[in-house]
Amino acid sequence: MNIYFKTLVLNADYKPLSYFPLSVWDWKDTIKAVFLEKVSVVSEYNEIARSPSLSIKIPSVIALKQFVVCSRKPAFTRFNVFLRDEFKCQYCSSENNLTYDHIIPKSHGGKTIWENVITACSGCNTSKGNKTLEEAKLLANKQPIEPTISFLQEKIKKYPPNYLHESWKDYLYWDSELQP
After folding, report:
1. Average model confidence (pLDDT) for the chain?
2. How far is CA 138 from CA 61, 91, 132, 157, in A?
3. How far is residue 55 from each of residues 28, 47, 49, measured CA to CA in Å?
4. How crowded is the C-beta side of 15, counted as CA atoms within 13 Å?
5. What is the pLDDT of residues 106-120, one digit of tens each?
6. pLDDT of 31-41, one tens digit each?
7. Segment holding 39, helix H or strand E
8. Max intra-chain CA distance, the chain
9. pTM assigned to the model
């Protein structure tokens, strides 16, 4: 079967396991979980997966049967830094060619932690180099903070994925005017 379907994965409370990234599984992993009785099928695509002995509709939304306690702190990732900073350079507000910058450069003892890293466009990052903000004569738009899970969950609602299947929309809470 040469198809590409993703399945939205909900926790046992019918809320997404994660918004960032969105909790989705490949259809093959989903079907395996259905057979192992680890999930309940909530919604299905019209497409059917077939084996020599069985045909099954591909699930579009599943819910775990056992509740999973999610981490209370978000992972420090490039995506989560960009999300916290709303995908904008914190020096010039550009949304193009984004990287991240150490406010106190690593060469000056700066660490790769939430409070020392901000989103920067490649132009601002290159011009700053290994200088401090004062040396580079730059100001950050916001003081970087370590975000909470709920903070990032609110931010991600402004940035829905390129594709949301109709059956997912009852379980996702994106800004309604931004939904495809």
Report:
1. 89
2. 47, 7, 9, 30
3. 13, 10, 6
4. 9
5. 999 999 999 999 999
6. 999 999 999 99
7. strand 39-50
8. 70
9. 0.70
